[in-house]
Amino acid sequence: MENLECIFCQKKYPMDIFNPFCPECQEPLLYPSPSKKRKFSLEKTSPLEKFLDFLPLSKIAPNLSLGEGNTPLLNLNRLRENFNFPPVFIKNETVNPLACFKDRGTAVAVQKAQSLGIKRIGTVSTGNMASSTAAYGAKAGLETFVLLKNDISTDKLLMTSMFSPILVKVEGDYGELFYKSFSLGRKHNIYFMNSVDPFRIEGYKVTGFEIFLQLESRIPQYIFAPVSSGGHLIGLMRAFLDLKKEGFIQHLPSFVGVQARGCSPIAQAYASGKSKVKRIKKAKTIAHSISNPDPPGGNIVLELIRENKGIILDVSDKEILKAQKMLAELEGIFCEPASSTALAGLLKLSEKDKLKPNDRIVLVITGSGLKAMDILDPSRINVRETTILSLEKTLDSLVE
Length: 400
Ligand SMILES: Cc1ncc(COP(=O)(O)O)c(C=O)c1O
Ligand SMILES: [Zn+2]
Prior knowledge:
This protein is α/β, with parallel strands linked by helices. Helices cover about 35% and strands about 15% of the residues. It has 13 helices and 12 strands. The chain is globular, with a radius of gyration of 21 Å.
């Protein structure tokens, strides 16, 4: 019998896939780390097989994979020169199958679903988790239910609909929808693998292991990641907690969770020294993918950040857009605004804290800019117009 554990009351509960929450604390339950010694299987090529000892799975079904993970760690040398920064890298999660880090969590949750003989899966999403879950559900031949926020962009809706899941747009409060999905899931045998699902979170650990190995088993000084519901940051931190537990490292990197100012309930609680997150009324930011006003993993994030000397900050939409453009212009990386918060966070932190020359910094760039074309402003496109006849003259004037 598998258990899940609550990090607040430390109690273990029999795993209930339809309601993975602590009955006492009402907080999301997490997958406990085993007492056996764990190791990497570096001879394997698939990330799930490489880190199988660290995942809540006994074996991997290769036919469920869409090729998630193994993403590059890129050196941002132009940005570094411009700002006189220590080495800065991005973990480029935009090259995952559905152009977003979510695939790593979906891959593990779908493996779990199949091993449990589950036939129906679902998710509640603002967009990225929708397309990821629909695609992996299609590959596994599972009936997939996707409950969407009413204002999802047409692009994200079109992308998700390609996989032919059952799509339901829901008017009403997103936080309420999240919790309601679990009772409906139990009624209809639908495993809702939402943002803080314990198996999804374990999948995000793989990103952390890859970063560690790509830095040749060195610990970065800082890891910046965008935060909305909290699941991703919890997974990244748990990867390094596992590395510490297994004796690979002695201390954790400083994790910096970044929220958009228009939806920053966790950053607000952190700034005022609170241990519990208070939901905000309404999110207002162009970073739509990180606009959960009632983050279910918020209290766990605060706890892990406090225990491990991390930081949560927020950045404005203006700073987010500036960082998005900077990553494209200087480094050839096109990410969505939700993801450029990581760079905006670094720029903000560097104004306050002096970065040391040997600090290594990693920004986790979570999703592709192609997912959020609707936020770009066509009036800002810098394009010259000419004719074939006068093209030579035009280019002559442009070449210095
Ligand atoms: C592109 C992107 N980055 C970051 C996040 C934040 O992840 P989490 O909700 O697990 O905190 C999301 C969540 O949807 C996302 O879509
Ligand atoms: Zn509890």
